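tmp note - ABC-type branched-chain amino acid transport system, ATPase component protein
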Amino acid sequence: MSVSDTPVLEVRDVSLAFGGVRALTEVSFQVNKGELFSIIGPNGAGKTSMLNCVSGRYKPTAGRVYMDGRDVTGLSPNVRATLGLGRTFQNLALFGHMSVLDNIMVGRHHLLSNNAVSGALYWGTGARKEELAHRRKVEDIIDFLEIAHIRKAVAGTLPYGLRKRVELARAMAVEPKVILLDEPMAGMNLEEKEDMARYIVDLNEEWGMTVIMIEHDMGVVMDISHRVMVLEFGRKIAEGLPDEIMSNERVKVAYLGVDDDEPAQTGEQVA
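out:
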């Protein structure tokens, strides 16, 4: 998917405080349609807090969030989902007692017909057609993520790597314009990371989703991102192309933990 100059998401001077603790301080950035945009920084830098402000879980103390030019700062996560925002979480948020298929179908909930007229007809032919249409969409996602063999499995019984894939499937089921991925490769082995990186790139290029990703694996971030933003103690310290970020002296010292005259190691895992 080509990257346009049209911002699909814009964050303006967002600050967030919990009592006397400032999680974010006047952070601004925009993500253009078709981008794969990564947010990096040390633990406690405010990365997940920023995604929570974008998704609507947190309301900023100050500043605004815009989607396609519309101010969504005061809108709930559910309303933002209807506007085209999907989300995965750092800590898995699956329904552990439900099947993989049912977990993914939950992501379709806001797309179901629920007005008075359709509700009256829901149990007729229209309902069956709608159900089939949603099932086809879900099956496309299942095939894409190569999880057909576990579609009937109880989500809570699956290995961690597969559960991460199921959560991505549920976020895809929202049919988002923008998908927020919070550490999608955390806790995975090398093979699982390579698979997930491939899915994310295909999600962006083939499925046409703009991706905003938090990830600690610098090798992955620098390989697949179009642009990268760096946070430190809730403030933005850098933003640019991957090569620019890797050569930024402040980023090397603050995040990668190297001296000015030491080369950054793109393959290292940063905790």
